[in-house]
Q: What sequence folds into this?
C-alpha cells in the first residue's frame, strides 16, 4: 500500500470501537483521532493517514447540522461495527447510505477477532485506487 489509509471506525459499544480503532492505528502506524476533535473542534488532519474513532450519534449530529464535513467525505474506508452502540435512527441510516453509495462502507461484526478484521480491512483498502478491483471493494477516483 503506497499511502497510509484514512479510516473512520463507527458503531459498536464505545470500548469495543475504541479498542478496534486503536488496533488499526497501531497496525498502520498512523495516529488515532477522536471524532469530536475533528468534527467539533476542527483539528487539522495529518497528511499521512489516520484512524478516526466516532460514535454514530456524533455523525448523526454533524449530518443534522448541515451535512457531513469534507474530512468524512474523502475517507478511504468507513468501518461499521454493528452492535449495542449502533443507532437505528433515520439520520444514521442516511449517513450509512452516503458512505455505502460512495463504495467506502465496510461492515464487520464487532465480535470478529482483531486479526480477521485487519485482514478484511487490508483487502478492502488494496482495491481503493483500482477501478477494476474486485466487486465491492472501495474505490476513490
A:
Amino acid at each position: 500500500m503506497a499511502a497510509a489509509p484514512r479510516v473512520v471506525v463507527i458503531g459498536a459499544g464505545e470500548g469495543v470501537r475504541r479498542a478496534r480503532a486503536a488496533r488499526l492505528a497501531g497496525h498502520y502506524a498512523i495516529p488515532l483521532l477522536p471524532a469530536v476533535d475533528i468534527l467539533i473542534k476542527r483539528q487539522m488532519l495529518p497528511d499521512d493517514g489516520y484512524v478516526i474513532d466516532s460514535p454514530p450519534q456524533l455523525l448523526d449530529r454533524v449530518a443534522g447540522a448541515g451535512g457531513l464535513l469534507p474530512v468524512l467525505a474523502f475517507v478511504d474506508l468507513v468501518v461499521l461495527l454493528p452492535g449495542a452502540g449502533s443507532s437505528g435512527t433515520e439520520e444514521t441510516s442516511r449517513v450509512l447510505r452516503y458512505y455505502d453509495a460512495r463504495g467506502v462502507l465496510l461492515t464487520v461484526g464487532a465480535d470478529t477477532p482483531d486479526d480477521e478484521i485487519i485482514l478484511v480491512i487490508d483487502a478492502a483498502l488494496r482495491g481503493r485506487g483500482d477501478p477494476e478491483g474486485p466487486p465491492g471493494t472501495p474505490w476513490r477516483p
